[in-house]
Amino acid sequence: MVETGNMDGLRERGFVRYGAERLGxxxxxxxxxxxxxxxxxxxxxxxxxxxxxxxxxxxSHAVYLxxxxxxxxxxxxxxxxxxxxxxxxxxxxxxAHPRTRRVLPDIPEExxxxxxxxxxxxxxxxxxxxxxxxxxxxxxxxxxxxxxxVDGPGQNAVSTPDxxxxxxxxxxxFTFAHLISRTNVTGGQNVIATPGSAGLQPDDPxxxxxxxxxxxxxxxxxAVHDHRVSHYVGPVRAGSGPGPGERSILIVGLAPYVPQL
Length: 261
Known about the structure:
three-stranded antiparallel sheet, 16 strands, Jelly Rolls, 2OG-Fe_dioxygenase, 15% helix, 2OG-Fe dioxygenase family protein, dioxygenase activity, seven-stranded antiparallel sheet
């Protein structure tokens, strides 16, 4: 059952679920903006680091200045293939790419001003600010578009890391997920577990599971306090309908900016 009350679960348990109504977005009120977001998801480039996983993605950074109530996208680095790219580092907790520098294609300019996307980003930021005293520090945002797509029976689309994991970063790191679309697929179950379960499969007898659920409706989502839980999403498989299937999700990682000097 989707939790539609306040965000106390994030404070007390380290995770919470929510639906579109919790976001303050009435059904049907953002269909045009949602359609524009889905159009970008449909054209996502393949994951350059996992070409056979049927995973497609883009990624960009933004920074929020709470004293100005200002959200600004950070320019990417010029790239001959993708136009611009942004560094993506998931920390030592990623067993597939430990301590590896990666770059991913940027979120296109036409999507960065999308009213629904900005509304989701600001809602996520508001939740973190309500939990932490961050009014005098910039808030760093990693914005990730991920589509798991399958063309027909027999194909699996796999997320990464393919195990219970944490996203890395400081004890102030929070991750929010918003389902954009889910069409003609099975699987994609989300699992939330203890930090000590990181690196295990959800069905491992040593895994200590808090919750299991599947996002099904547009803008269904969940949030985790990365330091306090581990999480996982299972493979996506083709459904029983004709044609391809997909699961598209917006992931927003938020953490206080840490000076390097």
